Amino acid sequence: LGLTVSMEDGAVKVVAPQEDTPAARAGVKAGDYITHIDGKLIYGDTLDEAIGLMRGKPGTKIALTLVRPGTTKPIDVAMMREVITQKPVKWEVRGQVGYININTFSEATGADTRAAIMAIDKALGHRPLGYVVDLRDNGGGLLTQAIAVSDAFLDHGEIVSQRGREKSDIERYFAKPGDDAHGLPVVVLTNPGTASASEIVAGALQDHHRGLVMGERSFGKGSVQTLLPLGPETALRLTTARYYTPSGRSVQEGGIEPDIAVPQISDPDYKSRPVFREADLRRHLINEVKADNKVLEEDAKTDPRFAATPEQLKKQGIEDFQLYYALKTVARLGGPAQVAAATKVTVKTPAK
After folding, report:
1. Is 207 a catalytic residue?
2. What is the pLDDT of residues 84-95, one digit of tens each?
3. 98 with 146, same domain?
4. Which pTM was predicted?
5. Is 134 known to be catalytic?
6. Which residue among 32, 112, 137, 207 is the active-site one?
7. What sign results for the dihedral spanned by CA atoms 199, 202, 206, 208?
């Protein structure tokens, strides 16, 4: 179906639907609760049981009943199961700005990101004004690929450290010489669905002042889990360490705060949909350095600069306000004359 889900107080909650999947096309949104699968009430089932019901043969139909906070009636959606074969990296050229969308950190993500940077240069015939790296609704993946993606935009310094319980139990990972992105301006888009490996990238670029983080505070998943086999069909998963950004910040619970907070005001459900982060999980790993509650709730305030309604934005042709704002910002940093051109799509090709 293309869903990332979690369990909250006995209910299955949608963390994020993956782009261009049956769930996304059917209108499933982050924050939705799945109450029924094919008419069967699943409240109280384990997460594995619920996932088992959602999985099935490609081409078979499935019906979900959703409860969406802010609405009064359940929502019924139907979709066809299919094999999910997402590309980890997609790229576009918008005006003179390179747009790189990273939706997961699988084995090829680092190489695909470098290929996307090269493809953008080739498509333009010259270097772009800068890059927008979209990590929204990216739930993470392989640590090695988070390091590889960060390294594509950094030419020196620490990317991330992994620290266990003992002070001596520290692993540090560093960037190699050479910046694939030519030192050009970078904006990193984040939202509450940006988690784990994605936060490593956002935190590394932010701490090295290599990129502006824009959007909303990230999920706050900074724990390292180790799988210990116990038998042929059983294993024990333990939280054994935490990730820290180059400046020594743990993203656990507090997440990555954007340098520029930009709400997704083009989404009609933005205000009514509550934010779901690691700190909301009943058994979340408490950060040793307590996050200031005032800071954590700062992104709930309304900024008068972002007062336009979804209808007003749609009339202007703006369907993704956060991306629109990021493109304008990169264009200003790279060349003010290109602001208008930066919002137009000229090339759209997935990275190979």
Report:
1. yes
2. 877 889 999 998
3. yes
4. 0.74
5. no
6. 207
7. positive
